[in-house]
């Protein structure tokens, strides 16, 4: 299972597909499938039966996962979509850094 360069809570830009150029926050990361669920992106309609959660049933719109290669992390400090680099701190901790400005992507 490869290590993904995105985390839940990252703001990302969709760079390919029907929702190209949309921005959103990562809601869920699915590392086994190499996919992420982004808020407000790749909306699909699901026909659901009545259940305790949704007593009347009907058509529900929800976000579907998209491939991680179709998103790019937006750097919080420079505000641009960027590639993600790794850097080791003095105490041996590994952090993600913006390839454009060199600032840390981890809070």
From TrEMBL:
GO annotations of cellular component type: ribosome
Q: Name the UniProt key words of this record, in alphabetical order.
A: Ribonucleoprotein, Ribosomal protein, RNA-binding, rRNA-binding
What residues does the KOW domain cover? Answer: 5-32
InterPro entries for the chain: KOW, Rib_uL2_dom2, Ribosomal_uL24, Ribosomal_uL24_C, Ribosomal_uL24_KOW, Translation_prot_SH3-like_sf
Matching HAMAP family, A to Z?
Ribosomal_uL24_B
The record's similarity note reads: Belongs to the universal ribosomal protein uL24 family.
- Its job: One of the proteins that surrounds the polypeptide exit tunnel on the outside of the subunit.
Q: How does it assemble?
A: Part of the 50S ribosomal subunit.
What is this protein called in UniProt?
Large ribosomal subunit protein uL24
What gene name is listed for this protein?
Answer: rplX
């Amino acid at each position: 299972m490869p290590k993904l360069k995105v985390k839940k809570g990252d703001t990302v830009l969709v760079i390919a597909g029907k929702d190209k150029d949309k921005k959103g926050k990562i809601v869920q990361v699915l590392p086994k499938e190499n996919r992420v669920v982004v808020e407000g992106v790749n909306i699909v309609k699901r026909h659901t039966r009545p259940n305790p959660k949704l007593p009347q049933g009907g058509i529900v719109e929800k976000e579907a996962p998209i491939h991680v290669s179709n998103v790019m992390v937006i750097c919080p400090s420079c505000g641009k979509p960027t590639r993600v680099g790794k850097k080791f701190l003095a105490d041996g901790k590994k952090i993600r850094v913006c390839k454009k400005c060199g600032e840390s992507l981890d809070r």
